[in-house]
From TrEMBL, chain A:
Keywords assigned: Signal
Entry superkingdom: Bacteria
Record-linked PANTHER family: ARABINOSE-BINDING PROTEIN-RELATED, SUGAR BINDING SECRETED PROTEIN
Protein name (Swiss-Prot/TrEMBL): Carbohydrate ABC transporter substrate-binding protein
Classification via InterPro entries: Bact_solute-bd_prot1, SBP
Region (Disordered): 418-437
UniProtKB/TrEMBL annotation, chain B:
Listed InterPro entries: ABC_transporter_permease, MetI-like, MetI-like_sf
Gene Ontology CC, one term: plasma membrane
Pfam families associated with the record: BPD_transp_1
PANTHER family named among the record's database cross-references: ABC TRANSPORTER PERMEASE PROTEIN, INNER MEMBRANE ABC TRANSPORTER PERMEASE PROTEIN YCJO
Family the UniProt entry places it in: Belongs to the binding-protein-dependent transport system permease family.
UniProt KW keywords: Cell membrane, Membrane, Transmembrane, Transmembrane helix, Transport
Record's bilayer topology term: Multi-pass membrane protein
One of the GO biological process terms: transmembrane transport
Chain segments annotated as transmembrane: 51-77, 113-134, 146-167, 311-330
Main location per the UniProt record: membrane
Domain ABC transmembrane type-1, chain residue ranges per copy: 109-330
Organismal lineage: Bacteria, Bacillati, Actinomycetota, Actinomycetes, Kitasatosporales
Protein name per Swiss-Prot or TrEMBL: Sugar ABC transporter permease
Amino acid sequence: MKITRNLLRTRGTAVISAVAALGLLSACGGSDSGGTGGGVKDGKTTITMGLFGVMGFKETGLLEEYMKLNPNVRIEAEIAGDEQTYYTALQTHLAAGSGLKDIQGIEIGRAKELVDTQADKFVDLSKVSGNDHFLPWKLSQVTGKDDKVIGLGTDIGPMAVCYRKDMFEKAGLPTDREEVAKLWDGDWSKFVEAGKTFKKDYKGDKVAFMDSSSGLFNAMIYGNSEQFYDKNGELIYKDSPVIKEAWNLASEAATSGLTAKLRQFQPGWDPGLANSTFATTVCPAWMLAHISEKAGDQNKGKWDVAKAPKGANWGGSFLGVMEKSPVQEEAKKLVAWLTAPEQQARLFEKIGNFPSSQKALEAPEVANAKSEYFSGAPIGQIFGAAAQEIPDEQVLGRKDGTIKDIFSQGLTLIESQNQSPEKAWATTDERIEKAVG
Amino acid sequence: MATQTSPAAAGDRPTKEPAGPARPGGGRQQTTKNNRWSTVLHRLDVKGAPYAFIGPFFVVFAAFSLYPLIYTAWISLHRAELASMDLMEWVGFDNFIELAKDDRFWNALGNTFTIGVLSAVPQLLMALGLAHLLNYRLRGSTFFRVAALTPYATSVGAAALVFTMLFERDFGMINWMLSLIGVDNVDWEGNKWAAQFAISTIVIWRWTGYNALLYLAAMQAIPLDRYEAAAIDGASRWQQFLKVTIPGIRPTIVFTIVLSTIGSTQLFGEPLIFGQGPNGITGGADNQYQTLGLLLYEEGWKNYQMGRAATVAWAMFLLLILIFAVQRLLKRLAARSS
């Protein structure tokens, strides 16, 4: 009797462990139901969103409001702080076909790659009603074959120059934003010249004229309709006069000691803002929120915004709906609502993300907006004017984001590693070959 | 459970049963049948159950170690991009040849080696000293032992982040302290050796206590009479340490060296977080602290070239095998010569 019981117990354990092992395996096999996407349960629709950085929907309470307007909808947003991390995860999920959210944010630097290689995994948003209010070039950036639109635009990044009035005064430069803009009107090289004057005449602690040379580089190349790629998708950065000119000027700034040798949004930059180690930074509209947060109350009113030498667009995002989503229709509605002119205008008011909607640009709360933090600068007017200067065609390339990173690092080689611009260019060139080849 | 009943007893039981005349033959046959069945079960129990018990490990091992290993080897023979893994293009050993020709690989290999030496050697030496001290009769010895292990319990991410702030160029605490003695700001991230030193510091901080406790455990297993004998012979503390303690814990030292070699080869989290952002992935703007682990990550999750990333992974694996082969060989040679 005892034996049998023992046997049974042993066998039982063995069976349990075998089942457990199989269970482990099958759990990893995953299901093809669309991973973590939402669904309909008890008449309530759950929509999941994957976002990055400060897209602002959750932060400004827009998602909450949508849920109030639509009591049957529940929105779960997951926000990654860093876009690189976010995009890596998105790529992995797209490749695996699971783990995708119903709505995924798309950063402009990745738009072309997604349009070219992953368009079939996104829902076509070209027929969504009321999507005719965007700036002419915005939707064309995410339009692929057969006029399929894989995302609706959220914000854009018209650029200006944010500067420290108190430091300009110490260097004997004008402080009024109109006159400051005249210092470098129409030509970025005048901006570098102003920096040289600043460096020469500034009295006081060690303060650099600008934060980083890569900010200047970005501002220069994004004023052109073509950057690293041409319209046919060919890499042209090697021979492009625009890139060459931007590289030369940025490396001139770097070698003349005009920069604080920082990298935007990297460690050191935030404390640089808080401790006032540089006088200017080229700032797209969405950067104002970051500056005011990191520079803090002690620097309130010391910052101001002046028109950039040339209009350019840096950044901006889109919201796409995944083909696998079980709640496509609801998700489309949400995306349309979030990107509607009224909501874009409100996002701008609250956190300064500049609308990509022509209609929102004309709204009085955008056009007349002033920033208290930046000495009451009429940011609606300044960025609005910059937005009108952005070339009507914006050619994107597949690896724009990656190439931009490599160029930034190339400039760091000059700034922090004291490499010659020629050598740094050769390294940059070689790295791009590796990264996109 | 199976061991509670000895196999002999179980197998013999039927024969021991008295064959009473009162029992009908059919009943007896039934018993034999039952017995045979239970013998089979018993065999299974004794011979099969152990396999069932260790089975789950091997199933999991096959699924999560062996299969990925083989699949990685398969991918490394292809040109494959993350976004289109279903369309792999066979390239044979091209990836390996390319890797061997790639400066970045040799640079990463060199960095992995230098950071490994910079972190492993001081770490093990310090651990040895620390263990020796902990081995003395101390008041509150448990406290010190737990304290030694605390850094090990900290996550890589947290530790690396804090150290990154300490080593920050403009406002970091270390540069501030250096400025007190008149040293100019050191660009810890930008300068090759400074960066490698800073990263090694994180590794040393995290692992010294852990190794110290391993040494301590081994030291406590050394019989006290050896020390007494040494003391009678007039050996000083230092001599005792060299002639008794070190030989006594030699196997543990070898073990920790093996562990740190593996750890160094796979060094990844610390440099990644140390650089933060794009610079972390490439191990600095000039790849000045890019390790093999980071190179793998850059190829796979920045350039999305899975074939090349898999090649780096296999190169790392082969490298570890090579290191151990060399180590075994040296050990054998050493044994033969003595």
